[in-house]
C-alpha cells in the first residue's frame, strides 16, 4: 500500500535506531519490545537458547512417570484427560484436544473448557447435540490448584465439527468455534460459534448472526461486550460482532469486517506487511453472515465492500485495551505476524513479523499470564515449542513436546504406541487469579497438561 494523504499515516518501521536499547526495551511490553528488536535490527535469540528460565531438559510426568515434556529447571507437571480416559459423567474423553480457557470458581478451584477438533459424522459423544452425527464438541474440567489435581470432568457440548479455538467471555462462558464450513450429509450446515458456560453445559444452538465461516479464535472487549473474531482461511477477514445486548450474544447482533483505509476504497491485503506497518481502520457490515452453500462467503462479501484480507488469522487475545491477533502464515517470510488493533483509536499495526523460522515458526494460539508474560503456541515444522516473550523482547523456548508412547502403551491409557512429538500445542491458558498453573494441550494423542514452577523468576 502506498502512502496517501487519505491515510494520514506514513508506513514506517517501529522504534528504529537508538530507541532499540536495553533501557528503552525495558519500558515496553513483550510484544512491543520484540517488534522493536526486529525493526532496529537488534540481535534476536534463536530457539536453542533460553535466556529467561534456563535451558530445557526432560521432566517426568507426575501422572505416568514418562518424560513427556522438556521444561526449565524447577518446573513440574501432571497430565490428565488423555483421549479415552473416563470422565466424571461416565463418558470417555474425546480426542483431538485444542483451544481452552480457564475460569476462577467461587470456591477457589479452576474451571476449564476444552475444545475437541474432531471431524466426521460417526456420532456425537454426548446429548443434547447440535448435529447427532457430528463428532466434535467441548468438555469441562475442574482443577484444585492447592492440591494440584483434577477433580471433575464432563461433556458440555457435542454434535459440532472441528472445534478449534475460541475464547473466554467476561461473563464466564467459553465461545467454541467451528473451523469449517462443511455441510453434513443430512444437510446440517456447520461453521458457527457456540457458547458454553464454565460450570454447566452449552446450548447446542449456534450463534448464527456471528457468521458462518472457518472460525478460529475470539477476543471480547470487557468494557463494551464487543466480540472480535478471526478466520483461519486465505483470504480471511478480521471481524467484530456488535451484540444487541451486552453479554447476551444469542439475542442477536451485527457482524462487521475490518477495513484498512485506501484512497479508492478498495480492499487491501496485509499478507506481506512487516513489523511496524500501520493502518487507519473502519468497518463494513457483512450483508449475509449466515451464508448458504452456493452463496458468497463473508470474507468475499466484505472484500467487495473494501474490507481488508489477511492470511490465516488464528490466535486472538484481549489485553491493554487492545486486541492482539496472530496471522500464522503472514509477513514477508511467511512465518507469521502479530497484529495489534486499538478499537478506541481505530488504528491497527503489525506489532511483529517473524524474520526467520528459527525465531518463530508459524505461531498459532496466544495467551498472557496474570504477570503480563506472553506465551505463543507454535504450529510449525521444526520441533513443537511453547515460546515465551521476555519483557525486553527476547523470544525463548519454554517447553518442548517430547511425547513418545512406548511399546506396550501406558497402563490405563488408550494411546497407541508411537512418537507424538510432532503434535502441535493448543489451548495454553493460565490460572486466572495468580497464574501459578499453566494449562495446555497436546493435540495428539490428546493430553491436557498442568504445569507449575518458579514463574516469578522469569517473564511468564
Structure description:
Helices cover 5% and strands 37% of the residues. The protein is mostly beta strands and 460 residues long. The strands form six sheets. It has a nine-stranded antiparallel beta sheet with strand order 11-12-13-14-15-19-18-17-16. Strand 11 (215-220) and strand 12 form a beta hairpin. The model is unreliable at 1-21 (pLDDT under 50).
Percent of residues in beta strands:
35-45%
Q: How many β strands by DSSP?
A: 28
- Measured between the Cα atoms of the first and last residue, the distance is 36 Å
Model regions low in confidence, pLDDT < 50 over at least 5 residues:
1-21
Strand order, main sheet: write it out. Answer: 11-12-13-14-15-19-18-17-16
Calculate the mean pLDDT score and round it: 90
Number of separate helices: 3
Radius of gyration (Å): 21 Å
| Largest sheet entry | 9 strands, antiparallel
Question: SS-based structural class?
Answer: mainly beta
Helix content: under 10%
**Shape, per Cα inertia axes:** globular
